[in-house]
Amino acid sequence: MPRRPQDYDDIPGTFVFDAEKSRQGYGINMFCMSLMKEENRRAFKANEAEYLKRFPLTPQQTEAILKREYNRMLELGGNIYFTAKLGATDGHSFRHLAALMTGSTQEDYAAMMLAGGRSVEGNRSKSGNFDKPARARPGKVGTGFPKKDVRQRKKARTKRG
Question: CA angle, corner 5, sides to 78 and 120, nearest 5?
């Protein structure tokens, strides 16, 4: 089933990691998480292509990993925090990866972030639907449930023990 278009799909240079991207990138993200263990890092570095066969990856995902195409990995469902584990396995800092992904030097990337991040000009939704910051909906708590529902859930948990 093809992916349903989302309002945020037209934000330049952005791949929003939503539920559909999560499903799409399951193999990439499980591979990257496997790199948290030393024995897996060793096995991967010994034979990268063979190690990747352990995961449900598409040919495009496999190619992006082998070529270290981080933006392509995100486009194919990778999560930035998981794919950073691949960079760390290669001995790179997150700052190095971010600079690489934004086409800048590490120094320029750091300076941009210290100055408040990238400008929103030219980086907003082309539809114009996101010009104003989102507002919290009245009656909601951080969970997204109405306050009454949150209280009922807490009460039910307390009764269960």
Answer: 70
Phi, psi of 47 (to 5 degrees): -160, 90
Rounded Cα distance between 96 and 99, Å, is 5
pTM of the model: 0.72
Average pLDDT, the chain: 82
Q: Which two tokens stand for residue 159?
A: 């009764």
- Kindly give the residue spans of alpha helices, DSSP state H, lying in the chain: 19-24, 26-34, 38-46, 48-52, 59-67, 70-75, 80-89, 94-102, 106-114, 147-160
Number of residues that make up the chain: 161
Question: What's residue 118's pLDDT?
Answer: 78
Contact yes or no for 101/70 (Cβ under 8 A): yes
